[in-house]
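Running this now, will post back.
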Amino acid sequence: MISPGLHEVKYDTKFYVTNLCNRLIKSNYGMGKTLVDKIWDNHIVVSKPGFPDVVYINTHFIHEVTSPQAFDGLRKRGIPVFRTGKTRATADHNVPTMDQHLPIKEALSRKQVEMLTQNTAEFGVELYGLGHPYQGIVHVIGPELGITLPGMTIVCGDSHTSTHGAFGAIAFGIGTSEVEMVLATQCLLQYRPKRMKIEVNGQLKKGVVSKDIILYIISKISASGATGYFVEFAGEAIRSLSMEARMTICNMSIEMGARGGLIAPDQTTFDYIKGREFAPKGADWDKALAYWQTLYSDADAEFDSVITFDAADIEPMITYGTNPGMGIGVTQHIPSLEQLDEKEKPSFKKSLDYMGLEAGSGLLGKKVDYVFIGSCTNSRIEDLRMVAEFVKGKHKADDVVVWIVPGSKQVEAQAKKEGIDKVFEAAGFQLREPGCSACLGMNEDKVPAGMYCISTSNRNFEGRQGPNARTFLASPLSAAAAAITGKVTDVRELV
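Update: finished.
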């Protein structure tokens, strides 16, 4: 029998028995199941009516921000990490993206990274710290190393753990107390989520990429429209995407309130995984693949909610406000007050005041000061290739600062191997070292107060990129276009 999500043979006997019973019960009833339910049922250790399920966790990622208190809790109770091989650590949020060989300047950042090093050494957890060839943003390194696999349960003390759902896994962020729980038991107490399916059918138009898809969806259902759900993304437009593009979709599922998002694995998934450092190999690959090929929602599976979109309706997107749901097509206008409910108007006005924008106005031609291409949303090699192809032979506007931050040391090395770094240098772009960087104001890469940044990251909250910084979220293509022109631009005019 293959254990769920991985070619692993070290699960508890109790887990095996529970898992087998679940499968037999479902097969006897012949009920259609969603992908979420298939994975969930395969990971239940204990389930009792009226109580949360005890769910086994395949892989636990940790970083320097949400792990110190969890390790301290173990230390105070005198207990070890239960399964050290199931936890992988990396430094990403607080790290500088220049001169990483030097001591970190910011005292708090330096302290948090040092604590991660000390804690992982004390408790025997694998660490990909600064200088390690596998170091990078936690949600970039998991997939590229072959740690993230279909059918898994994956958690991390980070909301964008949903990224890993692109592989057909149940992946979600957890709080620090839950980080401690997983370190101590390799399990979590969780209520089964509701299931939503979002289909995007048809073909994408020129200049529209996966970031535009997810910003469009969030703009339509709002930043809270999927609260309480695990979302399965499906449809022709989703199936046509590469794995890295799918990761962008699932990464931002959390931005519409979802517990997480996932996409059924297919040949695109299997081709991406095969041969990666920690992926199954040989006979283990064949066994794992046989299981992975069962991971799809049955034709008669019932979802709690189904929403359908037409890919032809999507144009390059950009946000105008202070949550990811406040987005419009780049040629459209910010809503007017008359288009809003009375209860929405106060927060809408507050958001526009912060952004220095007016209701009913357009964004085309709006001057930008900074361009940030990076974060766990858009810092993979495919993103960098996309930008390099677009800017080759062009040069950035004189008054725009452009930061390109790879998601990992492997992405950085591949970019240099392909000469992408030379393309960026010629265009006046700065290729920095891996880290979360200007996605959030927890390191040295902050946007100055009052400045406008067009960013490929996932959140545009007040102060997210630095105190009083103003953020427009967009795709790597749209961000690159703004870097060249110095203003918000419809990339379709340049491609």
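Residues 1-29 have pLDDT under 50 and may be disordered. More later if anyone needs it.
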